[in-house]
Backbone:
């Protein structure tokens, strides 16, 4: 008897967890959890980003497509500024080979869209759109808060006071110059280990309470070659940016759409400022909202001053992107309550947890597969047979009539 009660208690707990998750994400949709179930499976991939380490991506003719210090996994994708899209097929230690899978039609359509729009030039803001969304802030934070730039900071890592904070400061200040409200949180999240994104998630979830229009996690790469990111943009020597999208989160589709829109529009305003989009294994807290993004501003061997210039030029473009995208409250644009296909995917995930929880409860409480099937058969048999039965009137006796009685 005690054993059966124990089984029932375990099953009920699993079922309660599923119901709680369903209620938490659908009924309490404005709350943002500081924990993500998917993070349990992604932490090792998210942490594998070592300064000085170089992964290369080559195409089928052994031409280099990209390189980075973060690990590369089979299934990762690379989308270049010209719309060419590649998918990683093999990885041998630090060498990955990717297959060309075609031109990204969505990105090309966005490029055409912005080519045909009269967008503001650098340093100008779209005032008509700004009035509608300026009260919603852009939230900026740093998961890897020790990241620094060797030529300027003297080291690649300064725990609790990394040079990346200064890059975030310049980015935030440029946005403010354009009338944008900015939340720049400089909470440190050391050490740079597999739990860094868990710690920064608390920071991001807290910022979400102020209903930001975008959530930007500012990083830098760790490859030794500074020239890979160096480019003349707007007559200045600056570092380019890479956008990173986590492919293991329920908002991946809307995150990716947002990243492509950002790249298409930013490169229209500041040609070449966005180098590429890398679709990596991981979550990176991007399940928090459709317009969450991770940016890498140069690498640790670039000067911080060049990185700051790159971030400032990106800040020139971002307000216009958000204005064009329609980020007014309830306007159907990007944000924590945006109606995108990812919302249905999230709901499907939670319903899956609920179904699994109910199945586990039935299995454990029944004591085995055979008894569980018998219980389900009996339940459905009773329910279906009762569908056509007439409803009893109040006061009517609940008894079976003897054979032959009319």
Residues:
């Amino acid at each position: 008897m005690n054993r059966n009660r124990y089984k029932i208690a375990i099953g009920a707990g699993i079922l309660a967890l599923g119901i709680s998750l369903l209620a938490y994400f659908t009924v309490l949709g404005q709350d943002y959890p500081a924990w993500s179930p998917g993070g349990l499976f992604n932490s090792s991939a998210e942490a594998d980003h070592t300064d000085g380490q170089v992964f290369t991506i080559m195409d089928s003719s052994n031409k280099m497509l990209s390189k980075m210090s973060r690990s590369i996994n089979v299934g990762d994708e690379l989308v270049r500024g010209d719309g060419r899209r590649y998918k990683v097929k093999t990885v041998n230690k630090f060498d990955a080979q990717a297959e060309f899978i075609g031109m990204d039609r969505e990105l090309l359509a966005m490029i055409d869209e912005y080519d045909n729009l009269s967008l503001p030039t650098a340093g100008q803001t779209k005032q008509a759109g700004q009035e509608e969304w300026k009260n919603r802030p852009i939230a900026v934070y740093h998961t890897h808060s020790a990241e620094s730039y060797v030529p300027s900071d003297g080291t690649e890592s300064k725990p609790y006071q990394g040079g990346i904070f200064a890059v975030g400061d310049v980015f935030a200040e440029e946005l403010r110059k354009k009338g944008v409200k900015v939340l720049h949180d400089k909470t440190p999240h050391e050490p740079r280990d597999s739990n860094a994104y868990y710690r920064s998630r608390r920071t991001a979830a807290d910022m979400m309470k102020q209903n930001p229009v975008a959530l930007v996690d500012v990083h830098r790469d760790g490859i030794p070659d500074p020239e890979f990111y160096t480019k003349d943009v707007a007559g200045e020597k600056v570092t380019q940016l890479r956008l990173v999208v986590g492919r293991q989160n329920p908002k991946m589709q809307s995150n990716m759409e947002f990243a492509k829109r950002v790249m298409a529009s930013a490169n229209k305003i500041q040609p070449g400022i966005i180098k590429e989009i890398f679709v990596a294994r991981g979550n990176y807290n991007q399940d928090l909202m459709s317009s969450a993004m991770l940016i890498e501003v140069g690498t640790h061997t670039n000067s911080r001053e060049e990185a700051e210039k790159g971030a400032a030029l990106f800040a020139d473009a971002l307000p216009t992107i958000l204005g064009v995208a329609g980020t007014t409250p309830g306007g159907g644009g990007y944000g924590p309550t945006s109606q995108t296909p990812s919302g249905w995917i999230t709901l499907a995930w939670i319903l899956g947890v609920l179904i699994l929880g109910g199945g586990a409860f039935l299995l454990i409480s029944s004591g085995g597969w055979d008894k569980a099937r018998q219980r389900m058969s009996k339940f459905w048999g009773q329910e279906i047979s009762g569908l056509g039965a007439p409803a009893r009137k109040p006061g009517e006796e609940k008894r079976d009539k003897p054979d032959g009685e009319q």
Remarks:
- The two ends are 45 Å apart (CA to CA).
